[in-house]
Amino acid sequence: xxxxxxxxxxxxxxxxxxxxxxxxxxxxxxxxxxxxxxxxxxxxxxxxxxxxxxxxxxxxxxxxxxxxxxxxxxxxxxxxxxxxxxxxxxxxxxxxxxxxxxxxxxxxxxxxxxxxxxxxxxxxxxxxxxxxxxxxxxxxxxxxxxxxxxxxxxxxxxxxxxxxxxxxxxxxxxxxxxxxxxxxxxxxxxxxxxxxxxxxxxxxxxxxxxxxxxxxxxxxxxxxxxxxxxxxxxxxxxxxxxxxxxxxxxxxxxxxxxxxxxxxxxxxxxxxxxxxxxxxxxxxxxxxxxxxxxxxxxxx
Length: 300
Description:
three-stranded antiparallel beta sheet, mainly alpha, CATH 1.10.630.10, disordered N terminus, 53% helix, two-stranded antiparallel ribbon
């Protein structure tokens, strides 16, 4: 993949304030010499940019991260009611914040997405429905981006031969992000319901039947991906993974998310010389997948 192709898939405007915050994060992080990647960089970066694009003041990064970790924790389906209780409480708290922002955008409109929807007389959505959509959009803009960055960095540091390819041919960076999403999908499980009666894999399914799709398995189909366990930044069809779903359900912010992750991974390896892993357990997570912690160090 050429640099021109990567650029073509990254033509999404980034708010100037987000770019300033991006540079400010590096200025603060670089001299320290070590970090926990998600907590110290990926989460503030993902939450800050999502807030800028949507017109939401998500300045309390730790609190927003707690909300979405509670949501992800409830998507395990092991029968324990406590994660669902925490997720319900987080949803109520986040709803209150978002509802206030929808109302504020009417008294002080701006050029954000939230303001445009809230002030559109033909929107056809109640304030509660707008909040529900914002909550879901933020899920993808935060949890998926955090995990994609963490998984890509983990894979590149564990496969120095592939990292050397990127250093020699930076045009493959976008493809490396796709290959990371294929091999360790940040969204590991997708819920679907049948719209009409149908047959799948020899089974008759009625209307409204629940289907659980494992992207971990689908992305390692050897018929589609030769040597599926191998991390290959030059893989020609890496982008054919199902991590971002497909068709009508394809991720709304896929271009912005890809660009964010490419920016982040490029900056990490360009600005932090001698980058290496201090501690990183194997990626886990039923619905959202990444290492529980990714501690790094570099030559400060």
